[in-house]
UniProtKB/TrEMBL annotation:
Family: Belongs to the monovalent cation:proton antiporter 2 (CPA2) transporter (TC 2.A.37) family.
Keyword list, A-Z: Antiport, Ion transport, Membrane, Potassium, Potassium transport, Transmembrane, Transmembrane helix, Transport
Segments traversing the membrane: 6-23, 30-49, 55-74, 86-109, 115-136, 148-169, 181-203, 239-257, 269-288, 294-314, 359-378
Example GO biological process: potassium ion transport
Natural source organism: Cycloclasticus pugetii
NCBIfam families with a match to the protein in the record: 2a37 (TIGR00932)
Identification of the protein by name: Glutathione-regulated potassium efflux system protein KefC-like protein
Membrane topology annotation: Multi-pass membrane protein
PROSITE patterns: RCK_N
Amino acid sequence: MSSGYLEDLIILLVAAVAVVPICQTLKLGAVPGFLIAGLAVGPSGLGLIHNLSEIRHFAEIGIAFLLFVIGIELKPSRLWQMKRMVFGLGTLQVLITGLVLVAVSYYVFEVPLQAAAIIGPALALSSTAFVLQLLSEQRLLKSTYGRTSFSILLLQDLAVVPLLALVSLLGASEISMGDDIGLALAESVFTLLMVILFGRYFLHPVLHRIALTKIPEVFTASAILVVLGVSLIAEKVGLSMAMGAFIVGMLMSDSSYKHQVISEIKPFRGLLLGLFFMTMGMSLNLGLLIDQPLLSMGLVALLIGIKILILFPLTYMFGLSKGKSLAVSLVLAQSGEFALVLFSLSLDSGILAPALHQQLLLVILISLLVTPILAECARKVVTKKKLIGINPSEVPKSSPIILAGFGRVGHRIGDILKLAGKPFVAIDIDPNIVRKSQANNLPVYYGDVCNKGLLDSVGVGDSRIVIVTVNDMETSKLIVGSLRQTYPDLAIYVRGGNSLECTQLLEVGASAAVSDTIEASIELAGMGLTSLKVAEKEKKSILTNYAKHYYEQIKLAKKN
């Protein structure tokens, strides 16, 4: 790497570190933060970076990682559970909003038809990352309003795939209705079949063999190789890197390794995706806003107005109250990150003119900046309705218990939870345990329980209880300490080897710790007392008092 690239990289990192946290504090979100940071160091800002082409090519890998994670999270069974809202309401929203925006672009603003065909559906999409973040912060993600918004966003994520294909098709230099399109479709279908066969008969067994080595660095390298390798193959046959990454993500949606793969990919995805948004910010021409502020603000108002006017009656038709329909319409009224992706690819393909691209970027940025205001208005509408009367269907269901470790102890706890009818999710580093458990239809996934990103992936933030069953003291302390620091109200129960280990686990944040030795001793002593004909009531009293005294001593040791 030359010193020039190193200087540019340092400038970008400094800008991101300085601007993004400020935007998060102001409730603007990370995506606008990266855009503003890029704008600050780009030609329209301080002019610290001028050569964007090499940075943009590198940042496109972030798009592939984003589509991979979306694909891996779009589990078919999950889509089917919400089929009415996802495929009904979501499809209508994208189609109607897209068609209206195409018509407005073509007939009102006289945009070429090819460009309008991309602009309409791209602007119909909202910001998945930003909206879900806001709903999570408002603790409304599991409400009817939140679930409806999530269903529409889910369909919008799916719509990206055909839109990527549309960009590739419209960007072809010479398209005939016969041989060229037929050949392109045949190549796409053949590639899709090859990727499916690769995932079914090659990918999972290879990941299993790599997991058996228990070398984290090799697993990380293999995860990155899978995403980039399939993305490159897709690009070579005329599809896009993003589409290839999405397909391989879908193939891994039912894999027991998916959570670990997500946790390995997540840091790279976040950094490279942030770099992509910064390149978009650097591409912005701030002069457009300064020279024609009314035009830019008018276009944003028109976009938000159209999306609200279409979404409100649609959501109302699907059974939501007027208040919730208005809230969904407000929170999804912006354009999002996928529009940036599609417009960037369209610019490279020659579909969009540079001037039009600049204006569209400005509209997206401003719509993202006003989203927190719209989301706050939506929250007030929903919470106002809740004061009148709470709908029982809006009360969030209990989140599953997470078992950190699924060896002998974890497996028995899982059996007990299953008998009690309580849902749980388990994580274990041993691929053989995972494979055997999955064969018995148990929700056990491969991964390192010390990895915070993995725990986030399985929903530790929404869980009430984490039970740590790993048979390693240092690992247990690391898990408990990390969880307690991030989730102060979480109930964390953990096993220890003896009284000293239990004391140490309580000190780092465990809600309660159970000693292996004392429980075994009590069971064995109970058997002995039974053999000596000690009365059952007396035996139970002796053992209960002994255990109570033992754990009281542990608590006293913690205080001292």
